[in-house]
C-alpha cells in the first residue's frame, strides 16, 4: 500500500526537525567543550614572557582584555570627592602636559599653611589614574626640592631596574637605586606600574616586588605572632589581592642618607603606632616655616586605613572593589581598569550589596560629606594653633611652652594629614577616620592651652 503524499511530507518535516535538533545539540556540545577548554586555558601564549619583560604592550599580546582595561586608566572621571578631572593647561618647556588634574591647594587652602616650608605647599594635585603616575611625578612642582630615586618606588615599574642594578637581587638593586638623584634614577625606568610589578611572568600568580613592603608586612605579622613571614609564599590569594596594591598605597619615609624606603609598621598599623615610631627614631620631614616645629608629611596610607575598616574585617580585598571580577566569555578575570568603585557600582558593590546603585551612591556620599566637613573643621583647628604659636613667639612666651605647643602641632598635623592624604574621603574606615580627626582637634586645642600664661 503506497504512502500518501501528506504522510511523506510530514515524514520529511520530522526528519528535518530531528536533523536540526541534532545539529543544534552537537553545536551546543561543541560550544560547551570550547568554553571548557577556554576556561582551562585562560590565555593564549602568543609571545614568551620572561622575568625581565617590563613592557606592558608585550604582556598585552597574551592578555589583550587585561591590557585593554589597563590602558583605560587614562580615563579622567570625577566622583564627588575624588577621581580626576582633566584641566587644560598651556604646555611649557619644563612641563609638556596639556592636561592635568586640579590643585588641592586651591580646594583646601589650609594645606598651604599646614605644609609651610615644604614642597607640598608648592604643588599638590588630585591623583590621576595609573597611566599618569610616572609623568605626573616627573613634572610636579615639588622638584623645587631635590628628590631621590626612592620616590619612584610607587610611581614607576622598578622591578626590572632593581634586578639589573642588583644582579638579580631586588633588595641590593633598590639600595643602589634609592639614593640616586631623581634625574639619574629616571634613566633606569621606562614605564609606570606594569604587569610585571604584580604578576609572576610564568605562572601569572600575584606577587609583591617592593622590598619595603616585604620587610614591612613581616614586621606586622610578627606582631600577630607569625615569625619570619614571607608574603610571596605564605599569603593567600585573597590576601594578595590586597598586598599587591599595598606595595604602594601606604605611608612611608626615606631612612638615612641611603634614602631607604621604610614602612613604619614595627609598632602596628594605626596612626598612633606610626607616630610613636617616628618620635622614637627622631625623624622629621621638615621644619615648619612659620613655627619652627619639627614636622611629618604623610603619604597615602590607604592600606593602613582600610585595615581598620569594616570591609577589611569582612575579608574584602582592594581588588574586590577597585578591580572587581568580570566575565569575558568563559573567563572570569579582574577588571584592570583600576578606578573608584563609585564609577563601577554594579560590579564593585552590588555583588554583595543587594540594593540599587542610587541607594549605594547616596549612602557613600553621605559618609563622605560628613567626613569632608570634619576634615575642614580639623584643619581650621590646626591653623588656629599655628597662628597662636606665631603670636606667642612674638610676645616672648617661654621656650618651654613653645616647644610643648610645637609638639602638639606635629601631632595634630600628622593626624589630620594622615586622613586627608588617604584617598577614600573617609570611606575605607569612616569611624577610624573620625576618631583620628577628633584626636587631631584635641591636639590643636591642647597646644593652644599650653601657650596660655599660668594664672595663680
UniProtKB/TrEMBL annotation:
One Gene Ontology term of the biological-process aspect is: anaerobic electron transport chain
Q: Which reaction does it catalyse?
A: 6 Fe(III)-[cytochrome c] + NH4(+) + 2 H2O = 6 Fe(II)-[cytochrome c] + nitrite + 8 H(+)
Q: Which InterPro entries match?
A: Cyt_c-like_dom, Cyt_c552, Multihaem_cyt_sf
Q: Which CDD domains does UniProt cross-reference here?
A: NrfA-like
Instruction: Write down the SUPFAM superfamilies for this protein, in alphabetical order.
Output: Multiheme cytochromes
Q: What superkingdom heads the lineage? A: Bacteria
This entry's Enzyme Commission designation comes to: 1.7.2.2
Return the protein name: nitrite reductase (cytochrome; ammonia-forming)
- Organism, per UniProt? Candidatus Scalindua japonica
Q: Could you tell me the gene encoding this protein?
A: nrfA
